[in-house]
Design goal:
- By secondary structure, this protein is an alpha/beta fold.
- It has 9 helices and 12 strands.
- The strands form 2 sheets. A 10-stranded mixed sheet has the order 5-4-1-7-6-8-9-10-11-12, sandwiched between helices. It has a two-stranded antiparallel ribbon with strand order 2-3.
- The chain starts with a strand and ends in a 10-residue tail after the last strand.
Length: about 350
């Protein structure tokens, strides 16, 4: 796997090569090849700590002229580099795609890699960490520390937009130059927050437009007003927004952000009305773990797996000769804007 990053990249041969620090507002990118180490952990090789355009194209072009469709994965909150590698490898295994990852400083450290003042290091780094945040405990010391790390991760995301914008431009250049394999851009959880703000960087929206599909998976962004910025996401194929009203991780983010409803929990009634946009409800489906937050990265029943296989494989989700219920267990609304993996009223399917 190719893993790009705006973290400090060293020459270590394991996951420690991807450091905790980064330079806010910088466009510098690093890249290395990552493979599972048979002895455990990850083997990192081919380090480039400061990628030039020709370097990036030399790494990307062989993938874009290869035999597998490409999935570009942007992870969410509280993912260590090793967690990013593990998720990318899992997606490759589940969906038979070539995954290119982007690792950013999402663990809630300061940009220089040090811990937040007055905040103890987390005992374990886990994207489900916010699941523990409730309205009844949000002022408790240990919970406040989780919230502070999450807020710092949001700041780090906004300070990483220039690097991500450059990465997207390099992807678009490779895609257009090779003109063989398409790619889908998938942003999970707080990765969607990073993507949202990156769209304001000059040329970033046009770069996203070189993707075939864009998937916002359990997006940890404000639901209110989302259609304004989502309208700037115009890939060649479709835009997918997945949500789950039972997502306890995003409920924790809702509490942490002062009762801000998240798009990945409930998009609300003001949807972006477009034939190129699909909202996909996983509410009441019972799929996934981590509080219903990572339903795309687990072994799924046939129909939901087929949907993600098509999305991540840069094809349409519903073929012209198919009825919606042949793809989505509960079908779709009459306008095909929202499709359902389970009955909204609570009947579990699958």
């Amino acid at each position: 796997m190719l893993i790009f990053t705006n973290r400090t990249l060293t020459g270590q041969a394991d996951e420690g090569a991807y450091g905790r620090s980064f330079e806010p507002g910088a466009t510098r990118l690093g890249v290395a090849s990552v493979d599972a180490n048979p002895a455990g952990g990850w083997a990192v090789s081919g380090h480039l700590a400061d990628v030039q355009e020709v370097d990036a194209l030399n790494r990307l072009l062989p993938l874009f002229v290869g035999t597998r469709r490409i999935l570009v994965y942007l992870h969410g909150n509280n993912n260590t580099p090793a967690a990013c590698f593990e998720r990318c490898a899992k997606l490759e295994s589940l969906y038979d795609v070539e995954v290119i990852g982007f690792s950013w400083a999402s663990e809630g450290f300061l940009p220089d890699g040090t811990d937040l003042p007055g905040v103890a290091p987390a005992a374990a780094t886990d994207e489900a960490d916010l699941k523990a945040v409730k309205a009844t405990n949000r002022t408790q010391g240990a919970i406040q520390q989780k919230i502070r790390r999450y807020h710092q991760a949001k700041t780090n995301a906004q300070d990483s937009i220039d690097a991500l914008a450059r990465f997207l431009r390099l992807l678009g250049t490779a895609r257009l130059h090779a003109n063989v394999q398409p790619f889908t851009l998938a942003a999970h959880s707080l990765g969607a927050h990073l993507l949202q703000y990156t769209l304001d960087v000059a040329g970033a929206a046009e770069s996203v437009g070189t993707a075939h599909n864009v998937a916002l998976l359990a997006p940890c962004v404000r639901a209110a007003g989302h259609r304004a910025w989502l309208a700037n996401v115009r890939p060649k194929g479709q835009v997918f927004v997945t949500y789950n009203k039972g997502d306890s991780v995003l409920f924790g983010a809702y509490v942490a952000d002062g009762s801000q409803l998240k798009l990945g929990t409930d998009p609300g009634l003001e949807l972006l009305q477009s034939t190129a946009v699909r909202y996909v409800s996983f509410s009441n489906s019972g799929f996934g773990s981590l509080g219903g937050h990572n339903y795309f990265a687990v072994e799924l029943p046939k129909k939901p797996k087929k949907v993600f296989s098509r999305i991540f494989g840069s094809t349409v989700d519903i073929n012209a000769d198919e009825y919606p219920r042949q793809v989505y267990p509960i079908g779709c609304d009459a306008d095909l804007l929202t499709c359902y993996m389970a009955a909204p009223g609570g009947i579990e399917v699958g």
